[in-house]
């Protein structure tokens, strides 16, 4: 989700970006860098800064007298900084030198208009803006190549639908400022250990995703939205390989704040589901090369946060990596057995790309692998977003219907994997996660009215879970936006309209 993506939602994998980005660079027109009547510029702005990292945005503006067909922005990050997620572009990295090319769906910039891409940077100490910016080979300030960048303040997935969609660590571009209604402060101190979920924590019927790369207070944002339970995304493999890290980058300060947020949430009767994977980075099953090491990595996260519910967002190349799919299923099945022997529960959900016609065959294979390896799956959660015109034509006013159709199709597919299950049992295994507001496929807009359609369908069929990407986005943008944003929905709405609509669902 996400993509991340995602997405999800959202975001891109670096391996895919290296191929797509190279193709996009080759497509640039010779005149894209400027003309006698103007130039192409790229202005950088920080949209958020938390000391050990920041969220940044480049705005590429075209003041030439002609349409720019394709763009690329390159810059250097200071030592100790790395990009953990990026949206609205395809990225390649050579050490600290970063190149970002236009996504396949947004290559042209008409004269007098602009395009943006955003990213999250993790830093070991401090957070310094990028340097040596070039746009289409020329200085980002419109001068000659090699100059410094402009620092003027600025104002799902690029892959085909069905192969990778939805929640990821950050969908698309960010507004120039984050609306103040979303809580962003961290708890003042972290508990030494996280208390277990309350005995009455409930059914987890509505558990919206919270994009942890936005560094929000988990307990505060859930309380503000009225959400009892939330899904924290995403846990990935860190830089040292088979080592868990939120958003792929170890940050003790952030982890402490997150634990405090979980404790706060549980003190109010709620709970957290930890989501592993997403569209960006590497899920632990891809980094840990044997079942014992993967099992130990998962267990370290589960025990650190006293988790009873975990989610696995599997998309992109991970949907076809049979070795990692099998490792994941075997490691989790062993953990379920171990925790059961100790009198504990480990509830596992799978979050997978979907079309109105259902899961791709790769998705069906992932569910089948779980059943084959004795892994009990509670929910198959579908990423109802970024379908594409060929799969979901004329989406305006129909996104709720397409989400419902996706859920119906998955319910029917599950019959072949679990032939002994009743119809009610199969429905209890279905989850629906739309991307609220403007999707990465920007003509797909999920309105509050669509949320009502989905909530009614969910209640009628007593599905297993409703979620959304993301609670962080459940507010109007501070400024008008036609792109998907990681911090707002890009539509007109009241704050937490989507959460309040979905909260009516109780299973």
Describe the structure.
Its EC number is 3.2.1.17. Residues 150-192 have a biased composition (Low complexity). Pfam families: CBM_2. Helix content is 26%, strand content 24%. The chain has helices at residues 14-26, 218-225, 252-267, 284-287, 291-304, 322-341, 361-372, 399-417, 423-427, 448-461, 497-502; strands spanning 34-35, 38-49, 53-62, 68-69, 72-76, 81-87, 90-94, 97-101, 108-109, 114-123, 131-135, 138-139, 209-211, 229-237, 244-246, 271-277, 309-313, 347-353, 377-384, 430-434, 437-438, 445-446, 465-466. Helix 2 packs parallel to helix 3 (252-267), helix 5 packs across helix 6 (322-341) and helix 8 (399-417) packs parallel to helix 10.
How many structurally independent domains?
2
Shape: globular
The end-to-end span amounts to: 23 Å
Low-confidence parts lasting 5 or more residues at pLDDT below 50? 2-36, 144-192
Q: Classify the fold: give the CATH topology of the largest domain.
A: TIM Barrel
Biased composition (Low complexity): 150-192
Protein name: Lysozyme
EC number: 3.2.1.17
Domain CBM2: 31-143
Helix-strand blueprint:
Blueprint: H1 14-26, E1 34-35, E2 38-49, E3 53-62, E4 68-69, E5 72-76, E6 81-87, E7 90-94, E8 97-101, E9 108-109, E10 114-123, E11 131-135, E12 138-139, E13 209-211, H2 218-225, E14 229-237, E15 244-246, H3 252-267, E16 271-277, H4 284-287, H5 291-304, E17 309-313, H6 322-341, E18 347-353, H7 361-372, E19 377-384, H8 399-417, H9 423-427, E20 430-434, E21 437-438, E22 445-446, H10 448-461, E23 465-466, H11 497-502
Parallel strand pairs: 13-14, 14-16, 16-17, 17-18, 18-19, 19-20, 20-23
Antiparallel strand pairs: 1-2, 2-3, 3-10, 4-9, 5-8, 5-11, 6-10, 7-8, 11-12, 14-15, 21-22
Helix pairs in contact: 2-3, 5-6, 8-10
């Amino acid at each position: 989700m996400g993509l991340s993506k995602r997405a999800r939602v959202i975001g891109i994998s670096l391996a895919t970006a290296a191929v797509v980005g190279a193709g996009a660079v080759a497509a640039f027109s010779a005149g894209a860098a400027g003309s006698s009547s103007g130039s192409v510029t790229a202005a950088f702005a920080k949209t958020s800064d938390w000391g050990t990292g920041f969220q940044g945005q480049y705005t590429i503006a075209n003041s030439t007298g002609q349409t720019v067909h394709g763009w690329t922005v390159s810059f250097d990050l200071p030592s100790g900084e790395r990009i953990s997620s990026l949206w609205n572009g395809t990225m390649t990295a050579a050490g600290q030198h970063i190149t970002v090319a236009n996504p396949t769906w947004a290559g042209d910039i008409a004269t007098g208009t602009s395009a943006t891409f955003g990213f999250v940077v993790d830093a070991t100490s401090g957070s310094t803006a990028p340097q040596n910016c070039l746009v289409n080979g020329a200085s980002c300030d419109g001068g000659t190549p090699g100059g410094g960048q402009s620092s003027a303040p600025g104002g799902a997935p690029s892959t085909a639908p069905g192969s990778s969609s939805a929640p990821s660590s950050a969908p698309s571009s960010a507004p120039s400022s984050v609306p103040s209604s979303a809580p962003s402060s961290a708890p003042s101190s972290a508990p030494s250990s996280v208390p277990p979920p309350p005995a009455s924590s409930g059914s987890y019927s509505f558990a919206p995703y919270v994009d942890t790369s936005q560094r929000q207070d988990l307990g505060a944002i859930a309380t503000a939205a009225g959400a009892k339970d939330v899904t924290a995304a995403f846990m990935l493999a860190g830089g040292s390989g088979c080592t868990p890290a939120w958003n792929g980058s170890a940050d003790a300060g952030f982890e402490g704040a997150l634990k405090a947020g979980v404790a706060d949430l549980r003190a109010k009767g709620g709970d957290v589901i930890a989501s592993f994977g997403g569209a960006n980075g590497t899920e632990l099953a891809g980094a840990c090369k044997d079942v014992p090491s993967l099992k130990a990595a998962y267990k370290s996260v589960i025990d650190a946060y006293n988790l009873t519910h975990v989610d696995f967002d599997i998309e992109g190349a991970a949907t076809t990596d049979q070795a990692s799919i099998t490792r994941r299923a075997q490691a989790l099945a062993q953990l379920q057995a171990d925790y059961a022997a100790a009198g504990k529960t480990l509830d596992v959900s799978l979050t997978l790309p979907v079309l109105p016609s259902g899961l791709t065959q790769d998705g069906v294979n992932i569910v089948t692998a779980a059943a084959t390896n004795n892994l009990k799956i509670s929910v198959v959660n579908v990423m109802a977003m970024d379908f594409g015109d060929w799969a979901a034509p004329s989406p305006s006013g129909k996104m709720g219907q397409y989400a419902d159709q996706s859920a119906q199709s998955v319910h029917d597919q599950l019959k072949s994997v679990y032939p002994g299950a009743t119809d009610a049992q199969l429905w209890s295994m279905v989850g629906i996660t739309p991307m609220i507001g403007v999707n990465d496929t920007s003509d797909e807009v999920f309105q509050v009215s669509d949320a009502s359609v989905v909530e009614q369908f969910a209640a009628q069929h007593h599905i297993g879970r409703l979620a959304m990407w993301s609670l962080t986005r459940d507010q109007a943008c501070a400024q008008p936006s036609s792109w998907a944003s990681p911090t707002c929905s890009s539509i007109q709405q009241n704050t937490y309209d989507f959460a309040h609509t979905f909260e009516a669902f109780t299973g």
